Amino acid sequence: LGAGFNFTDAAENPMWNWEDYKALSFWVKSDKKANMIVRLGDAHDERFGGPTLNIGDQWEKVVIDLKQFRARSDWQPPTAKRDTFIDYPVTQIEFAPVSSKGTIFIDMVEIIK
Prior knowledge:
The protein has 113 residues and is mainly beta. It contains no helices and 8 strands.
């Protein structure tokens, strides 16, 4: 199972408007070698996936340029406006393991300019 953040007040709260930001960063490690992907949901319910990350057993800072996120071709909610670019504000961040073995630890999630 993955973990995620849903920002139910994103449309009314300007702090979730990432237009002036360039990247998502966080610290990550796993108790076993693991792979995971970070996904975003946008203001129009479209879903985006970032690169697949190889996670080791030592804390590592990951920085993903927001330009690396691509509209998911495998699944979109029926309500999604499919325009293939992130419509701000972001309403969801999801950390999804590619395999289900082990535990992935995530800390200090931030967006950076």
